[in-house]
Write a structure and sequence with these properties.
This protein has 6 helices and 10 strands. Strands 6-3-5-4-9-10 form a 6-stranded mixed beta sheet. It has a 4-stranded mixed beta sheet with strand order 7-2-1-8, covered by helices on one side. It has a single domain, classed as DHBP synthase, CATH 3.90.870.10. The chain is globular and about 45 Å long. The longest helix is centred in the N-terminal third of the chain and has 18 residues. It starts with a helix and ends with a strand. By secondary structure, it is of the alpha/beta class.
C-alpha cells in the first residue's frame, strides 16, 4: 500500500471513530458535501439539526454502502420494490420508503417514510462501511444557504462546529440527488 493510500485509510478510520463517539462529520457525496452522524444517536442528530437550523419535523436522509444498512429502519419491501430500487442503486437516487413503527422520530420527522440512498460515492460508501451502519446525510450548509461543494467551503461555512472532515471530491453531479416516493413513484425533488 502506498503512503497516500495508507494516509487516506487512517483518515477514514479517524472520521468513523468520530461518528461512533457521537460526532458530526462532513464528507463528499454525489453532488455536494454532506453532514452526517450516527442515525441511532439521538443527541448527535439533534445537534446536527440545530447546527443546520433545520426543523426536526422535516426528517433527514440516510445514506448507506448497501441496503442491509438501511433495512433496520424500513418496512419489508415487495419483490417489485426491491427490483425498482436495485435498478437505481448504488447511485444518486434517494427514495422515500415506509418506515418500521420503531424508526425514531428524529430521523423520519413528521412522516411515515424515510428518505434513503445507497450511495455510489466511493468515500461516502467507504465511511458507511467503516462505521458499519448508515449515516445521516444532509447538505453541509446552514438552511437557506448554498450547499458546500468542497472541503474549504465546509470549513468557511461551518468552521469548527463540526467534529471531523473527510476531504475529497464530490461526484460531480450538478444538483442534489433526486427524491422519489417508492409507493407512488412521484418525483418529490428533481435532480
Amino acid at each position: 500500500m502506498g503512503r497516500r493510500a495508507h494516509h487516506n485509510r487512517l483518515r477514514l478510520r479517524a472520521v468513523a471513530r468520530i461518528v461512533e463517539t457521537g460526532g458530526i462529520v462532513a464528507y463528499p457525496t454525489e453532488a455536494v458535501y454532506g453532514l452526517g452522524c450516527d442515525p441511532q444517536n439521538e443527541w448527535a442528530v439533534h445537534r446536527l439539526l440545530a447546527l443546520k437550523r433545520r426543523p426536526i419535523h422535516k426528517g433527514v436522509i440516510l445514506i448507506a454502502a448497501d441496503f442491509t444498512q438501511l433495512a433496520p429502519f424500513l418496512q419489508p419491501l415487495s419483490p417489485d420494490d426491491q427490483t425498482r430500487l436495485a435498478a437505481t442503486w448504488p447511485g444518486p437516487y434517494t427514495w422515500l420508503i415506509p418506515t418500521r413503527a420503531d424508526t425514531p422520530y428524529w430521523l423520519r420527522g413528521g412522516h411515515d417514510t424515510l428518505a434513503v440512498r445507497v450511495t455510489a460515492h466511493p468515500l461516502a460508501a467507504a465511511l458507511c462501511r467503516a462505521c458499519d451502519h448508515a449515516l445521516v446525510s444532509t447538505s453541509a450548509n446552514f438552511s437557506g444557504h448554498p450547499p458546500a461543494r468542497n472541503a474549504l467551503v465546509v470549513r468557511r461555512q461551518l468552521g469548527w462546529s463540526i467534529d471531523g472532515l473527510l476531504p475529497g471530491s464530490t461526484g460531480g453531479a450538478g444538483k442534489p440527488t433526486e427524491i422519489r416516493d417508492l409507493r407512488s413513484g412521484q418525483l418529490i425533488r428533481p435532480a
